[in-house]
């Protein structure tokens, strides 16, 4: 069987090019899309993700700002900054990079972000709307995966979809999105007995655990679509996914690489959500008055 690679980098670039026109239109209306990314601490991976997000916004012509706090910052300081940003009409999206240090109440931080600026889709209101099948903001990584499937012409309806990982960021929203498209969804996690039994049944397999190469070729059904959300750093400094690409690529019909698969799509969908937030505001606000010469 020939293996096809699902190229997230190329699709993300295509999407980002298409965003430029929407950004120009909004900018002309006085609603240049603006995103603020808040980072607490010095986690190396989070620093890279945040830098990539901010750079992607700037490349698309959007306003973007990075706010960095030391690891021992008082959560009240971050909450006060979020309150300020909620009231700032130049800012359409607010993202707090996760994970947060242990002394933070993550749920309280996410709840403090105005739901209409929650471009991560992590606020309880947005999670609830997604669960009810009326999404407002879709979490960026699973949103990117759905776009990749759509672009590749994969219809989840009637398929067995197996997700490995039950996080709020990927596993749970991924399950809701695939369910909404008619897949029969199984979520596996650290307490699942006989993981391979489940993964070998999957027409669509999504790995989102954060364990290097834990899904081997013997755990894949021939002809499966394999989506690797993991980004793990190996001792030699190279990146790899949760899927053992070399062995799984032999068996899968379609497979995402790491890097260059889901990662770039996460960023593209963050831009999409921020632009969407600005468009919603532009629709609610009157157009700026033109100067009369
Ligand atoms: N940490 C890992 N992925 C994400 C994400 O999509 N959003 C935020 N805010 N933090 C993350």
Shape: globular
- Structural class label: alpha/beta
Q: Give every kind of bound small molecule, once each.
A: guanine
Q: What is the helix content?
A: 40-55%
Describe the model.
With 293 residues, this protein is α/β, with parallel strands linked by helices. The protein has 2 domains: 26-120, Rossmann fold (3-Layer(aba) Sandwich), CATH 3.40.50.10860; 140-263, NAD(P)-binding Rossmann-like Domain (Rossmann fold). The protein is built from 10 helices and 11 strands. The chain has a 6-stranded parallel beta sheet, with helices on both faces. A 3-stranded parallel beta sheet has the order 3-2-4, sandwiched between helices. Helix 2 (44-59) links the parallel strand 2 (34-40) and strand 3. The structure holds guanine. Guanine binds at residues 95-98, 120, 140-141, 169, 266.
Task: Report a brief summary of the structure.
This protein folds into two domains: about 100 residues, 3-Layer(aba) Sandwich (Rossmann fold); about 120 residues, NAD(P)-binding Rossmann-like Domain (Rossmann fold). About 40% of the residues lie in helices and about 15% in strands.
Blueprint (SSEs and pairs):
Elements: E1 4-5, H1 8-28, E2 34-40, H2 44-59, E3 63-69, H3 75-86, E4 93-96, H4 106-112, H5 124-131, H6 140-151, E5 160-164, H7 171-180, E6 184-188, H8 195-199, E7 204-207, E8 225-228, E9 232-233, E10 239-240, H9 245-251, E11 254-255, H10 262-284
Parallel strand pairs: 1-11, 2-3, 2-4, 5-6, 5-7, 7-8, 8-11
Antiparallel strand pairs: 9-10
Helix pairs in contact: 1-10, 2-10, 6-7, 6-10
Bound molecules: guanine.
